[in-house]
């Protein structure tokens, strides 16, 4: 068995459901975003890495309506990316995000989108994600608000370039 605890490269599998307590236990704010009081959407598609029955990493997807510069399109939202604390730093986030993005390419939209804290945006940048410049509005129960987290995009088709203009997610964030 390797130092990471795998006899071979960890495999990303599609999961029917996801319960974040499998990775985080009963942690109150495992993603460190509760201070902003945002209401999030559940993901529709779930991907994970398991070892000996234990869930070590997760990423979720959801197709969402968006407009950029007044033009409407759908994007694939990536969220709920999590790695068990005792397995971080071993490439599991890159692997589970990569597996989720493989599926995202089959869903039709040209871009994937995520929201993250600034302290983890470097991880996504290393994986090929790009920061959206400017404010991004998202829906909340009280109406549209400016997203306080970083917004990043990823091309799901070769040669895709993020359009210019104001960005508005026409749903709650994922």
Structure described in brief:
With 174 residues, the chain is mostly beta strands. The chain is built from three helices and ten strands; from the N terminus they run βαβββαβαβββββ.
Commentary on this structure:
The protein is mainly β. It contains three helices and ten strands, in the order βαβββαβαβββββ. Strands 1, 2, 3, 4, 5, 6, 7, 8, 9 and 10 form a ten-stranded mixed sheet that branches. The longest helix has 13 residues. The radius of gyration is 16 Å and the shape is globular. The model has no long low-confidence stretch (mean pLDDT about 95).
What is the 3D shape? globular
Count of alpha/pi helices: 3
Structural class: mainly beta
Head-to-tail CA distance between termini? 36 Å
Taking all Cα atoms into account, the compactness measure Rg is 16 Å
What fraction of the residues are assigned to beta strands by DSSP? 35-45%
List the helices and strands and how they pair.
Blueprint: E1 12-15, H1 21-24, E2 45-51, E3 54-68, E4 71-83, H2 92-104, E5 111-116, H3 121-126, E6 130-131, E7 136-140, E8 143-146, E9 150-155, E10 167-169
Parallel strand pairs: 4-5, 7-10
Antiparallel strand pairs: 1-2, 2-3, 3-4, 3-10, 5-9, 6-9, 7-8
